[in-house]
Write a structure and sequence with these properties.
By secondary structure, this protein is α/β, with parallel strands linked by helices. The chain has a single domain, classed as TIM Barrel (Alpha-Beta Barrel), CATH 3.20.20. Helices cover about 45% and strands about 10% of the residues. Strands 1-2-3-4-5-6-7 form a seven-stranded parallel beta sheet, sandwiched between helices. Helix 11 links the parallel strand 4 and strand 5.
């Protein structure tokens, strides 16, 4: 008989979710068995992994059920979910596959700030979906809540990156009011979401950097962005849940802020061109949980067996010290071959086979 593909092995595996494993990782401890972490996958993988036929995906609840089934079959101890109504509407962009940091800006001065129609989480009636989907969660699974983008991401989306840089210099008072308007609503989003029993952790998803440096100076981040993330973490912790930061870019100048000031339990998103996750783990695993890190470029370009070997090595590196969950450096977009993704997760799943 021919050797099964990694995809076949994953589809044929028997899931055994236990959210306590991710809790142990986020507490910088040892899980009972190798643990997986991912922010999101892609539509093709959701369909393949869920193996659900006739389940409607044209409404939010149906899609939540598909996501839950897919995360379950892939071996995660949770499903990521965000009630869809709360967001920060911005202007149209020419392309959705590649995101411009300047296109679609709506708030560029005091007049446009005051005329912008904000959505408030308390006016969104869909947070009860977190309770509704709890009945669809397999035993042992929880929801990991995330946001409609983060504090800096949404301010850039509303103002444009170039405009924001000028605004910081020319009108710091308006800049502060804009960050406060976004940050306060995000805090409320996490308060409303984390009060549900189905939620066990939450991701504050906010990209802060380029490959070489932060998008704003560390001083400006500490003035406008980080205070709101500190409040987001407090809201998550006050609900008894764990707080995860998903943030792309070079964070070397601000890791102390992430750990000591904001108090995140875990950090996600790494690139080999910035610093391989293997060395990040050695530097920080005693202070913050390290999540994912298998570089996307490596994942796309490598043969499946090579992906599997690197994933195995990461699990072996953290086997005695804990505080690590296996996954990609960012997410699983559609250009990642399914076989390569499955080779990565099989390194954790094979012990359950």
């Amino acid at each position: 008989m021919a050797t099964q593909s990694y995809l076949q092995r994953v589809l044929g595996s028997t899931p055994s979710p236990d959210f306590g494993n991710l809790q142990a990782v986020l507490a910088k401890g040892l899980p009972v068995r190798p643990t997986l972490f991912e922010f999101f996958l892609n539509g093709r993988l959701y369909k393949r992994l869920s193996a659900v036929s006739g389940l409607p995906t044209d409404d939010d609840y149906g899609m939540a059920r598909v996501l839950t089934a897919a995360f379950y079959q892939a071996g995660y101890d949770y499903v990521t979910f965000k009630p869809p109504a709360f967001c920060f509407p911005a202007g149209a962009r020419g392309h959705e596959q590649t995101l411009s940091l300047n296109e679609g800006a709506l708030i560029t001065n005091r007049e446009t700030f005051e005329s912008y129609e904000w959505i408030h989480p308390d006016d969104c009636g869909d947070y009860d979906m977190l309770e509704r989907i709890s009945s669809d969660l397999p035993d042992g699974m929880k929801v990991v809540l995330y946001g409609p983008g983060g504090v800096l991401e949404n301010v850039i989306r509303l103002a444009g990156y170039d405009n924001l840089c000028f605004m910081i210099a020319d009108d710091p008072e308006l800049t502060q009011e804009l960050f406060d308007a976004v940050g306060s609503r995000l805090v409320r989003h996490y308060e409303l979401g984390c009060e549900h029993e189905s939620v066990g952790a939450a991701i504050s998803n906010d990209d802060w950097g380029f490959k070489t440096q932060p998008m704003l100076s560390p001083a400006d981040l500490r003035t406008f962005v980080f205070p709101w993330h500190k409040r987001i973490v407090e809201a998550i912790h006050n609900a008894g849940d764990l707080a995860i930061l998903h943030s792309c870019g070079n964070a070397s100048e601000i890791m102390e802020d992430i750990i000591e000031d904001m108090g995140f339990d875990g950090k996600h998103s790494y690139e080999d061109t910035i610093e391989p996750v293997e060395s990040i783990y050695e530097d920080y695993q005693e202070r913050i949980a390290i999540l994912g890190g298998v570089d996307l470029d490596f994942l796309v370009r490598s043969e499946p067996d090579k992906v599997y070997r690197r994933a195995r090595a990461l699990l072996e590196q953290s086997a005695d010290t804990g505080g690590y969950a296996l996954g990609t450096g960012n997410s699983v977009p559609e250009y990642v071959p399914d076989e390569n993704y499955c080779a990565m997760i099989w390194a954790a799943l094979e012990v359950r086979a």
